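Today's session is about reading a structure prediction critically. Students often jump straight to the picture, but the first step is always the sequence itself: look for stretches that repeat, for charged clusters, for runs of hydrophobic residues. Only then move on to the predicted structure, which in these notes is written as discrete structure tokens rather than atom positions. Here is the chain we will use throughout the hour.
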Amino acid sequence: MNDIVLEDKNNPKLVYWLIGIPLAVILWFFLYSQLDNFATFILSLTGYERSSQIGESIHFFFYDTPKVMLLLVGVVFFMGIIQSFFSPERTRDLLSGKRLGVGNTMAALLGIVTPFCSCSAVPLFIGFLSAGVPLGITFSFLIAAPMVNEIALGLLFAMFGWKVAALYLVLGLSIAIFAGLVIGKLGMEKHLQDWVRDIHTGATMPADTTQFKWVDRFNAGWEHVKEIVLRVWIYVVIGISVGAIIHGFVPQDFMASFMGKEAWWSVPASVLMGIPMYTNAAGIIPIVEALMGKGAALGTTLAFMMSVIALSLPEILILRKVLKTPLIATFVGVVAAGILIVGYIFNAVL
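Below is the predicted structure for this chain, in token form.
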């Protein structure tokens, strides 16, 4: 910190940043810790109980919307500062220069230790793109983060044993790595939305950031926040609104009625049913247990679970502001194909 002050000690704006950032971090963590209390308070004003379908939807919306917005602001600001040290060209060279699949594997492994739902992973996905990380590698993270995190693995281990958890880990990582490789090889950067492509290629950044002072780096982070958050916030609200409505009305009995392993179409039908829904790993595991208790096959149920947390409609709605339709369709198609394979494998061996 002394180096920062000495570098630009006569700039009053730097002092504001050095005071403001620690205060903002404290406020950020405080607000994040109060999300459940906030959602519960809002729900209490409506007169609904959380045990009701409408009450669960209301609580879900007022918990998840500020959570995703806090993550979006924090991650985008941080990645804006990071980008001021590493040009997009240098970042791409570092990650693309590794052997085939190494960058994808690293991104997928990072996803394991980040307990994000699909919508919460989008801010970091955008941050990676803005830092010049190759498109395919960012997708490996986006897929792995919600689908193969420690919460999902821990709950699967506790409910179904280590064999199911281990097989889920291997197959889930394989989907994330393979899908990222395929998308990377297709060279679909042209299907990023124009404003994202400009950031990804460095068109919106000065050519030489090596002479940046710390106040410039902080300003770059804030400009990132204004550029990105102001563009995508409405899609966040719309996406989570859709997810909240569906989250409160999960028809478990109806779904379990045709999720056995007898019919070949049960796995793709479960994947299609899962896409419109939205929850995180902790929220979907109890549903998985309930479905299996009503006779659903493990592979079919896990395929449903993967589609809910890795291909949710709210996530796709948010990504629509970042990706063009061909890239979204490719993402959904490649990941859905991997999930189908996982479902059939689980039904065949367990």
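Discussion point for the tutorial: The chain has 18 helices and no strands.
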